[in-house]
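Morning F.,

Quick status update on the modeling queue. The single chain you submitted on Monday has been processed. Sequence for confirmation:
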Amino acid sequence: MTACHDAVVVGAGPTGLAAAVALQTIGRTAVVIDAGEDRTAGTRALAVHPGTLEVLERLGCTDAILGECLRIRGMQFRSPGRVLARMSNDHLPSRFTFTASLPQPRTEAILRARAHEGGVRFVAGRARGVVEDDAGVAAVLEDGSSVRGRYLVAADGMHSTVREAIGVSYEDTGAEAFDDQNMILADVILSGPADFEYINATMGPAGLAVLAPLPGGLMRLVVNAPAQRTAPSDDELQDFLDARGPRPASIGGRLVIDSVVWTSHFQYRHRLASTFRAGRVLIAGDAGHAHSPAAGQGMNLGIRDAFYAAAAVDSALADGGSPHRSETILDTYAAHRKAAAQGVIAATNRMNRMFYAPPPAQPLRNLALRVLSRTAVPSKMALGFSGLLDTGPDVSRADAAPHAASAA
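Structure tokens below.
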């Protein structure tokens, strides 16, 4: 098999696009297999955290994001009647002391434009298999054609055909107790004293309500609810907000939904690939991990996977042809990204236990949060969820190889 590209990237969501841009940025050729799916209707991600902004800055994408986003200071945990604790980004060790709130389609559009600027090639089609030999690896498309490269990055989502084709299974995550949680999302325009500085998660006997500000005066409302076969009506959304959101007396007035721009509903399951590498194939993003949307970690983790996958490919190609060293680099990537995913799953599992504490335990939970708010715990949580601790192999060829070999 003669490889035509340094890497084939399967999937054109934020993870796949980031992988292609990272490869292009360090002078490697990449081709993206784009199934042409319309992801807008299922879009859920909105937060680009500081650690991910630092990655995207190196890919030449941050200026465009900052030109469109709303800057959020952090997250507040509330009971209906009061703020219990605040997880603030104000003092993070980064020039990005905020979370960028931007709908996922806009983040994808910025990455795609950057990829086109750099000459990344796109091939329309859907991968149905993988063929590998000593010279490279090919993604086989549904029409029987194939696209070849020295390495392949599988970024084709939770239902990854590449992951299935290479025989990588899921393993237990320890968070299965929260599988099949039903969530309703809606982007709405509110009147009343809405807080656009923080994401507010209100926890009470009626359930969870999260209000996350978006650019343009929009607010994302997220609630857990019984299974929905159809999108909720405007009146149902207002009922959810009234029953679960902040009490009017605690914020200086009632929040009223003036209009609904978009709604969706979904169930999530926790998933973790048993390995993030098989042969010349590296797994990244939702193809390797899926978890609760608590704290908005999924897209961020996927973009950082992509960044480090590009570094691993670059290092393996630059190693002077040593098969042993290439194996070490790729294994290090797999261990590093699986550990990062395990950390996110564990953290979001702890947050879910807090969100969904049974009513008898809620007064104790609220008291614990109020006590912890006076300690360093919220700052440590903010640092953990920022992604700034998720460090790994560098994409600069001058030092990518030594970093990739020692990142674990």
